[in-house]
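Example 3.
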Amino acid sequence: MPELPEVETLKRSLTPVIGRCFQQVEILSEHCLYHMTPEFFRERIRGRCIHRIDRRGKYLRIHLDDAAVMTVHLRMTGRLRLGAPEEAPDKHVHVKFWLDDGNLLWFQDTRKFGRLYLKDDPPGLALLGPEPMSDDFTPRTLELGMKNKKQPVKSWLLDQRRIAGLGNIYADESLFRAGVHPLRPVGLLTDGERQRLWTAIRQVLQEAIEACGTTFSDFQDSYGRPGNFGQTLDVYQRKHQPCRRCQAAVETCKVGGRTSHYCPNCQPLGGS
DNA sequence: ATAGCGCCCTGGTGGC
DNA sequence: TGCCACCAGGGCGCTA
């Protein structure tokens, strides 16, 4: 499940395609196209060159030479891969971009949740909160945004309008490092808890970016390489395993329909 | 306005 | 062994 560090890793691995041009676009499944027909997408992309690639939250933004932007969201199992045309698999490839250097850029996605945007930007893009690794994200972001709110802190962290780019893995890992229970109401967090949480978010994301992301089941960069952060995870997908800090068994609970992993000893519901 | 929830998908898993 | 129910989950869009 690609989150900020995985999309950042993908972005960096796509550096070789900057300056390349799209000779042809082959759409095998239009399901992934947001608010546009295959014809519109194909004609709009064909002949355009890649000017720049950046990232906003979990969105990858591919800027074309005519100022249009193709946005990609991988959701759960989406991949953007680069290679020789014969390297593309037979199954789950939805769009093939034939480049002017003979290489192929392709979008594949087994669960078909991922989307390509070009005609309209994703609605959530304009609503995104601050980039957590930027100077726009400060302890004040947490202080002001959590004030008088009853929402569980885990739900708050997953809300992309609050912070851009956190998903289930890094929200759980950040809460563990900060010693905060996922169900704790945000308005009740102490100054110390908020400070620890702010620090934890930055540290976890920084370390994950340096490790080229987490490959739990699906993530690969544009060359198919997995991430290395999985072995560093403290709680995510470690249910019933001993906490690395206190040896208590890691537990799970549901928060806003999502599974949360936490240590009941290191992350007391009553706060600390 | 805002919070909460169902839905989309398919491969992998666990139970019988 | 085979089958099947269930689970994973980000964001969108609808409802209360």
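The radius of gyration of chain A is 20 Å. The mean pLDDT of chain A is 93.
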